[in-house]
Structures are given as structure tokens and as C-alpha cells.
Amino acid sequence: MWVTILVFVAGGCGALCRGGLDALVSARWRARRHGPAAAFPAGTFVINVSGALVLGLVTGFATAHTAESVQDFATIAGVGFLGAYTTFSTEEWHTLGLLRKNAAVEAWNVLGSLGASLILAGLGLWLGGQL
Amino acid sequence: MSVIAIFLGGGLGATLRYALGEALAPPTPPNFPWVTFMINIVGAFALGAVMTLLTQHRLRGPWGKPFLSTGLIGGFTTWSHFIVEADQLISGDRTGLAIVYLATSIVVGVAAAAAGAHLVERRARSQAGGR
């Protein structure tokens, strides 16, 4: 029961971190870029790539350590916080918007997000297993 | 007020995703991650509908964008688990299935977001025409 309550609290905190960081990064990105590059969803990119790296670390660690306390931590931090911090739906919404207006930025967004996330999460999985 | 709405929405979204995972017993890494796939597609559809309602000014206040979009749907869907699952498929020697998972999630996700947006736009048009 308390794991479920902590997943709720961690999920709420994850969503708040995403909201705050997205506003901060997006504003800074748009202030310094002109033309098509300004449409790049930099906030969601930073959030999803960083979240993938940390979930890789947590998952790698939890795979190597089977203690119940480690599994509970992985559930609260991974499923709760990082699951809510990163977002698939917003990524798809940005992709749809870019697909309608700016196909080149859309391709960079999808391939860049996938590539950077896969590499960093893979690194995290390996590093987490070494801890 | 919107900080509370994001927190509650994100907590609820993460808890819902956690409960679905527990109830449906997510497939072990070497198989297609159906649970995350379905969660992300349903979320992308819902976000397409909600974002379109927001642009039509039919959802307002803290229970609109903060609670539903940033909180509930953003917290429900997850990018980090999507990526880590794909990495686990690759390290489990199922690279082909990983590519299928990545590609179908992105393509079906964008289509679902477009379908959600289209549904709301069509309803708005038929309501405007009926008056």
C-alpha cells in the first residue's frame, strides 16, 4: 500500500519537475534561436533524454540487486518519478505539429530523441549494473 | 493552484500506469512490451483531443492544461520506460523486435494523436454547423 502512495507522490513530483524544466528550457531555447530551429521542442527533448539515462541507471541497478528494498526503490523512482517526469504523449504531439509544418525539424526531433535516449539509457543500464 | 493540479494529475497518471502494470503483469523484457505500448498510444490519443479542446478554449483554469495535459496524461505516458524496454530487447538479442517496437510506437502514437485532434475538430465543426 505504501509503495502505491509513494508512487503517487513521486509521480506528482515528476510531473512538476517536467512542467518547470520544460518552461525554463523552452523559453531559453526560443530566445536564442530563429527560423525553423526555434520550433524544436528542446524542453521535452532534454527531459526525455535525461529521464531515459536515469531510468537506465535505476533499472540496471535493480536488475543486479534483487533485495526487496531495491525493488521498491526502483518502483517508486522508476515507475513513479521517472515515468511521470518523461512523457511519450507530449513527444508525439510535438511530432504531429512539426509533421504538419516543419518536416526537417520533425525528423531531427524523432531521430535525435530516439538515438540519444537509446544510447544514454543503454549506458545507464550498463553503469547501473556495475554499481 | 496549478502547481497542486499538476501534482495531483501527475500522481494520478503515474499510479494508474503502475496499477495497470501490476494488474496486467508486464511481459518480461524479451517480449513485445504491450502494456507500455497501449498506455502510450491511449495517452497520445487523449493528449491530441485535450490539446485541441485547449486551443478551442473549451478547457480552462487549473483543471485544463495543468491537471489534464501536463499532469494526468503527461504522467500516465512514459518515454523513459519505452526507451529502456527497447534497450533491453536489443541486449536480449531481439534487435528486430526492438526496431518494430520503436517504429510502431512512434508511428501509431502520432496517428493516435492526430485521431484524437481530428475527433474534437469534427465535433466542434458539427456543433457550429448545427446552430
UniProtKB/TrEMBL annotation, chain A:
Keywords: Cell membrane, Ion channel, Ion transport, Membrane, Metal-binding, Sodium, Transmembrane, Transmembrane helix, Transport. It is a multi-pass membrane protein. It catalyses: fluoride(in) = fluoride(out). Na(+) is not transported, but it plays an essential structural role and its presence is essential for fluoride channel function. The chain crosses the membrane at residues 39-58, 70-88, 108-128. It comes from the Bacteria. It is found in: Cell membrane. Na(+) binds at G83, T86. It holds the Pfam family CRCB. Fluoride-specific ion channel. Important for reducing fluoride concentration in the cell, thus reducing its toxicity. Belongs to the fluoride channel Fluc/FEX (TC 1.A.43) family. This is Fluoride-specific ion channel FluC. The gene is fluC.
UniProtKB/TrEMBL annotation, chain B:
It is found in: Cell membrane. InterPro entries: FluC. Its main location: membrane. Na(+) is not transported, but it plays an essential structural role and its presence is essential for fluoride channel function. Keywords: Cell membrane, Ion channel, Ion transport, Membrane, Metal-binding, Sodium, Transmembrane, Transmembrane helix, Transport. Pfam families: CRCB. It comes from the Bacteria. Na(+) binds at G74, T77. It catalyses: fluoride(in) = fluoride(out). It is a multi-pass membrane protein. The chain crosses the membrane at residues 31-54, 66-84, 96-120. Fluoride-specific ion channel. Important for reducing fluoride concentration in the cell, thus reducing its toxicity. Belongs to the fluoride channel Fluc/FEX (TC 1.A.43) family. This is Fluoride-specific ion channel FluC. The lineage of its organism: Bacteria, Bacillati, Actinomycetota, Actinomycetes, Micromonosporales.
